[in-house]
Amino acid sequence: MPTLWLIVIVLILAAVGYVAGRQRSLSSVDGDVRRLHSLPSFYGWNAALWALLPALLALVAWQVMQPVVLNLSTQPMLELDAAQPGALGLAMADVRRVADGLDLAVQTGLMSAEGARGIAPEEVRAQLGGMGIALGSDVTPQTLAAAQHYRGWADVGQWLETALVLLLSVGGLALAWRATNAEFRARNSVERVARWALIAAACIAILTTVGIVLSLIFNTIKFFGLYPASEFFFGTTWSPSFGGSSSLGILPLLWGTLYISFVALVVAVPIGLFSAVYLSEYASPRMRALVKPALEILAGIPTIVYGLFALLTVGPVLMSVFGQGGVLGVTWMGGGTAVMTAGLVMGIMLIPFVSSLSDDIINAVPQSMRDGSLGLGATPSETVRQVVLPAALPGIVGAILLAASRAIGETMIVVLGAGAAANLSLNPLEAMTTVTAKIVSQLTGDADFSSPEALVAFALGMTLFVITLGLNVFALWIVRRYREQYE
Amino acid sequence: MTDFTSAGGEAVELRRGQSLLTVDRKTRRRNAAEGRFKVYGLIAISIALVMLVILLVTIVVRGIPAFTQTFVSLDVPLRAEVLDPDGTGDPEVIRGVMTFGYAPLIEEALADAVAETGVQTEIDAAALVQMLSSGVAADIRDRVQENPELVGETVTIEVLASSRADGYFKGRVTRESLERDRNLSPAHLDVLDAMRDAGIVSIHFNWDFVWGADASESRPEEAGIGVAMIGSFFMMLVVLVLSLPIGVAASIYLEEFAPKNRFTDLIEVNISNLAAVPSIVFGILGLAAFIQFAGLPQSAPLVGGLVLTLMTLPTIIISTRASLKAVPPSIRDAALGVGASKMQSVFHHVLPLAMPGILTGTIIGLAQALGETAPLLLIGMVGFIASNRPDGLAEGLLSPNSAMPAQIYEWAKRADPAYYERAWGGIIVLLLFLLAMNLIAILLRRRFERRW
C-alpha cells in the first residue's frame, strides 16, 4: 500500500480514537463530567495520540531502514571488482534502476507481474528503453537476479510495513480505549506528550548546528585527503582548474575578505556611530520618529539589491572618477568591480546595523550619569565623549564586531561587486575576491563533488564558519566582561 | 579638587572681575566644539539618508522601463497554402507546421507595414525582421494552434519588438552604439521612427514581465519574473508551514517550561549563534544535508524552503520569546488560580495574547527569507531558464524552479544591458512584496498590540 494512503488511514484511526475515547470517558461516568479526572476532550486526545504516534514513528523508522537493509542483502549477489572504489555504488544504482523500471512496467500494464518476474536479461534493456528508462549497457544476468531479489524483498517489506503500522495504530487505539475510565489521568498523559513535542522543537536549533558542523567537517576532511592542508592555509595563489593541478591557497581570498570588510567598516562605523549619538542625544522626538525607521529601511533591503547597486551604479561611478578617461585623468581602476565598489556598498548596508545596535546601547546608559555630567558644567558633546561613550564602549565594540562578522559573511554584494580575480594587492581600486564569492563559484554549476576544486568550497565554508562564530563569541564575551551594571 | 585647580587655573584667572554673561575664549571654544559635534551627527545622518534616497531613486528610475515594452502591430496573413496546403482544416496538419514555416508570413507582414509608412529603405525584408523579437514566430504559431480556424485569414497581432529596438525607444541604445552591432543597424532605426510616427510601433505596459516566464539569453524582451514568483511562493509556503509551529513551540518551551540547566543553556547559545551564521553557510548545509545526503531533488522549492526555514527559525524564536515575555505574569497566575494546568494556561491564555506579536515577527522573518539569495545559489536555483509553470502542489514543491532574488541574480549575470533593465524591474517587484509584508506587520502591531 502506498505510504500516503497508510498515513491517511492512520489519521482516520486517530480521529476515530478521539471520538471513541471521548465517548467512553463520558459513558464510564454516565454523562456526569464532574466525576471525570480530566475534561472529556483529553480522553479523546489521549486515544488519538496512542493511535497516531507509535504507528507514525514505526512508519518513519521503516522508511529509513528498508533501503539500507535491502542494499545490504542485495550486495553479496553482485560479484564486484573490489579494486574500484565507486563500482559498488554504480552497480547498486543499476540494480535499483532495473527494479524500478520493472515495477513501473507492471504498474502501467505494459507487463504482467509474471512477465516481469520471468523476463530474460537480454530483453530488459529494450523493454525499459521503450518506456523511456535508459540503461547504460545491457543487463547482466547477475544484475537482473539482484534486481529481482530487490523487488521481491521490497514487496515483502512493504507488506510487512503496512501490517506493522496498522497493527500498532489499532493496538494503540485499543489500549487507550481500555485504559479510559473515570480515574484515568488523561490530561497528564496528553500534556506529557505535548511537553516532549515542545522540547523536540527546541532541539531543532541544536540539530541545525550539528548538521552544519557535520556537513562542513566531513567534506573538509575529504578535501584535505586530496589536497594538503598546509598548502590550503598558507598558499598565496588561488587558481582552480577543473582539469587538475590547481593551486588552492586561501590567503588571497582571506585578504580580499578582510580588505573589503575593512573598507565597509570604515564607511559604516563613523556614519552609524555619529547617527546613533545624534539620534539618542540631540534629535527631537519627531525627528527620531522619522529618521530611525528610514535608516531601518536600509537594513530591510535584500542584499541582492545592494549587489546590483554595486555592479551597475557604484562601479560605473567610481570608474568615471578613477578609471580611464575619468574626471581625475588617472587610470587607477581597471574595471567597475573592485574592493572599493563592494566595500562602499557593504558599508551602506551596515550603517543601520551599527546605528541601531549602538543606539540601544547608548540609551541603556542611565540618564543620571548624563545629568551629573551636565550639572558639573560639561557641554552635551563633552558629556557624550567623556561620559556616555566610555560607559557604552564595550557594547559599541561588540556591535562593531558583530558588524564585522556580518561583513565577512556577506555574499551577494561581493559576488556581484568585487570581481572574480584572486589578488594579493594593496590597491583598493583593484578587483579582489572573497571566501564567500569563491564558495559560490566553486559550488554552482555541474561540479562533481569528489574533485578537490568543488570540495574546497566546504573547507572555505568551514573557515568562514569558524571566523564568524569566533567573532560573535568574542563580541558577546566583551559585552559581558566589560559591561557595567547600572541599576 | 587638585585636578581642578591644576587644569582649570587659566579659566579661573580669566573670570576675575568679569560678568558671568560675557563669553570668554575657552567657553567660545567649547561651544564651537559643541556645534561641530552636532554638525558631525547631522552630516552622518544626511549621508545615510542621501544614500537611501539614491538607492531608491536608482531602483525606480532604472526599473520602471522594464514594465513597458515596445510592440509592433502587424497584419499577418495566415495563408492557407503555407499552413495547410491541402485545405484539410485538420488541427494535426496545422500543428505539423514548424515556426520556420511562419517566418515568411511575418517577413511579408512587416514589409507591408514598412511600405505603408512610406519610408524609403535599402534593407531587404529578411533583415527587417531583425527589428522583431525572434520569438514572434513561435508566438503566432501558438496562437494559430489554439484557433485553427484562423488559417486563411489576415489577423492583426501585436508582436514584441527586439530588445535592441525596444532599447532605442527607451534610450538605452543609440545610433552610435549600433554602428558595430550585427543585429540591428542605424538604418533600421529610421524605419522604426517612421513606424512609430505611423502608429504601428507603440510602447505600453507589459503584463508578461510580471507574470511571464524567463526566456533564453538572446531574447530579453520576452523574459518575465512570473515563474520565479511562483517558486518564491512555494518556498514561502514551506517556510511558513514549518517555521511558525516549530518556532512557536520552541519559544514556548524555552520561555515557559524550560528549567535553568545546561541543556537549555546549550539550546539558547545555539539559537543566538545560528542567528549570526552567514546565510551562505546555510546553503552549504542544504547542499550537503538535503541534496547530497537525503537525496532531495536539486533546484526544488522544497529544498529552498527547508534551508530558509532553518535560517529564519532563530529570528522567529527570538521575536516570539519577546512577545511571550511581554504577557504579564498576572495572566498566568490567574489561569493557574482557577485550576488550569500549566499547559492550559499557556495555550489558552498566554499564547492567544502573544499572537499578534508572534505573527508580526513571523511576517518580518518571512520577508527576510523572501529576499535571501546566497543559499539559493548553492542548492541550484539559478543557472537554468525557469520556463514552466508548475501545476499542482507536488510539482510546485519538487520540480526545479527559480526564486525572485535568484532570478534577479541570473539576469544581472547575463551581459546584455536589456537584462540589467529587467533585473532592476525584478527588484521593484521584489521590493513591492517586501513592502506589502512589512506594512501588514506594522498594521498588525498597531491594531492588536496591547500595552499592559
Q: From the 3D coordinates, which CATH architecture of the largest domain in chain B would you assign?
A: Orthogonal Bundle
Task: Choose one word for the global shape of chain A.
Answer: flat
Instruction: Give the low-pLDDT segments of chain B.
Output: 1-9
Q: What proportion strand of chain A? A: under 5%
Determine and state the CATH class of the largest domain in chain B. Answer: Mainly Alpha
Q: How would the global form of chain B be characterised?
A: extended
E-strand count of chain A: 2
Estimated radius of gyration of chain A: 33 Å
Summing up helix and strand content along with how strands pair, one would put the structural category of chain B as mainly alpha
Order of helices and strands of chain B: HHHEHHHHHEHHHEHHHHHHHHHHH
End-to-end C-alpha gap of chain B = 48 Å
Number of domains in the coordinates of chain B?
A: 2
Main sheet: strands, sense, barrel of chain B:
3 strands, antiparallel
What order do the helices and strands come in, and which of them pair?
The complex is a heterodimer of chains A (487) and B (452).
Chain A lengths: L2 H26 L11 H35 L12 H22 L4 H5 L3 H10 L10 H39 L6 H41 L2 H6 L3 E2 L7 E2 L2 H31 L3 H16 L2 H20 L16 H26 L2 H9 L4 H30 L2 H6 L17 H9 L8 H31 L5
Antiparallel strand pairs in A: 1-2
Chain B lengths: L1 H6 L1 H7 L9 H39 L4 E10 L2 H4 L7 H5 L3 H19 L7 H4 L7 H11 L7 E7 L2 H8 L4 H4 L7 H13 L2 E5 L1 H5 L14 H32 L4 H13 L4 H15 L7 H26 L2 H9 L4 H30 L2 H5 L14 H6 L5 H10 L3 H32 L4
Helix pairs in contact in B: 3-22, 6-8, 13-16, 13-18, 13-21, 15-16, 16-18, 17-18, 18-22, 21-22
Protein name (chain A): Phosphate transport system permease protein
Organism (chain A): Wenxinia marina DSM 24838
Function (chain A): Part of the binding-protein-dependent transport system for phosphate; probably responsible for the translocation of the substrate across the membrane.
